[in-house]
Amino acid sequence: MEIATILIAMLMTGAVGGVLAGLLGVGGGIVIVPVLEAALAIVGVDPSVRMHIAVATSLATIIPTSISSARAHYRRDAIDFTVIRFWAPWITLGAVVGVVISANVSGDFLSAVFAVVAFTVAAKMMLPLDDTNLADDVPRGVFGLLIPVGIGSISTLMGIGGGTLSVTAMTLSSKPIHLAVGTSSLFGLVIAIPATAGYILSGWGNSLLPAASAGYVNLVGFGVIATATVFFAPLGARIAHALPRRRLSALFGVFLLIVGLRMAYRTLA
Predict the structure, then answer these.
(1) What is the pLDDT of residue 114?
(2) pLDDT on residue 56
(3) Which residues contact 137 (CB under 8 A, 6 or more apart)?
């Protein structure tokens, strides 16, 4: 019964994550990480590796999810390839930095990072700041490079596809919310591939990991969640393009606030 419950939870997590991937461009990881961490606690996985497993498995599922979501947004001409070409190499570098950091910190540290970023972005998205921009376009120069490096590293520590941060960065740089969501769906792939490989290597041989694990990536969770997210991502993309800009931003913010509260509780409990 316990295994059946976990499988059902993973299936539902994948379905919700897939819809959110297409709807908000967040790769689904912002849902998958807290739910999978709670599921691992139920089956008795050691607390010192639970968050690492949740983050790594989430990143692995983002690979097929991002492909599915990006294809749906591409058909609607909602991907800015100028930003993709400029940010992609630096986001990849940031993902590598994130893996190195994660291999040397505790699960509570990862939870704290998750909560702080979720609260910060939620405040920006919930407030009526749609017309408040910090730049007329995506910044260039040294500062412009620090943004994608930060997106890649922090997203890797959180186990998300980068949408939480890249959507915020792009909307603050005068990009329309729908274009930002579509573009961020492709960044999920840029982050997830190197980050997943890094988590597999850094967790390889850890005796505390449950069965069916490749490093920190749990293969059962990956199979169930990835299948569901790929199936449901196009539905989220259709919903996104049917919603007004303000409602989409507010929805994003409310959801991040809820998730941030959950991860803050996990850190302080």
Answers:
(1) 83
(2) 92
(3) 173, 174
- CA 232, 234, 237, 239: dihedral to nearest 10 degrees? -60
Neighbours of 144 (CB within 10 A): 16
Q: What is the rounded distance in angstroms from the CA atom of residue 233 to the CA atom of residue 68?
A: 6
- Token look-up 């274009």 returns 179
What residue segments make up the domains of the chain, in order of their start?
2-268
- pLDDT at position 1 is 44
What pLDDT does residue 199 have? 92
DSSP string, the chain: -HHHHHHHHHHHHHHHHHHHHHHHSSTTHHHHHHHHHHHHHHTT--HHHHHHHHHHHHHHHHHHHHHHHHHHHHHTT---HHHHHHHHHHHHHHHHHHHHHHTTS-HHHHHHHHHHHHHHHHHHHHSS-TT--S-SS---HHHHHHHHHHHHHHHHHHTS-SHHHHHHHHHHTT--HHHHHHHHHHHHHHHHHHHHHHHHHHHTT-TTSPSSEETTEEHHHHHHHHHHHHHHHHHHHHHHTTS-HHHHHHHHHHHHHHHHHHHHHHHH-
Instruction: Give pLDDT < 50 ranges for the chain.
Output: 1
- The CA distance from 115 to 22, in Å, is 22
